[in-house]
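Hi U.,

Before I forget, here's the chain from the pilot set. I'm dumping it here mostly so it's searchable later in email.
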Amino acid sequence: MASSSSEDERGHQTGEGDEALEGEGGEALEGEGEGTATRTLYERGPASLPPVPLPHNRSVIRPMAKRAWLVLSGTPARTPASILGVLCRKWYPGIVQLSEEPVVREPASNWDRYALVMDDTYRNKQEQVLAEFWKYFKAEEGLEAQADRAAAAACREYVTEMHHHGRVQAHIDYYRSVLRQSLPKPQARQITLTWD
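Structure:
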């Protein structure tokens, strides 16, 4: 596969497959031997939420196709999809208890398991994610219920994808920090963990 590369505004070489390595912070890989160049590998920083707008400044949105939103008014700091994705990661409940007798605990690997974890302010983590999403946006008048269903359906997919991307990113991070090598996402996706 041919890789196109160019120099970015910081003077570093960027190329196809480097998107997983871009971001804030970084560590330099020191080349050993003659003719080896020093290359900086960038670690993607955690996505953060923008400040919550005042209620009268929220963008009005309408649910469109799967996970797509049409912004009818206002200029949001981030897209509705990216806000939902960050909220799903921010309020990830971790290990949830599935049953009392026998006690069964598993990671919250799907959106339904967010409902199993109670919260002090909201009934559960599902409700918390959706309530915080609506602090950033306002649904088009008359489409509030449809917009709520669309947001929940999008979260269902984001949570599933979150685990896939976490596995891929773990491989990339391991190669960068332990093996001191770059690992493009396409190759990271092909790696499977074994007990060996």
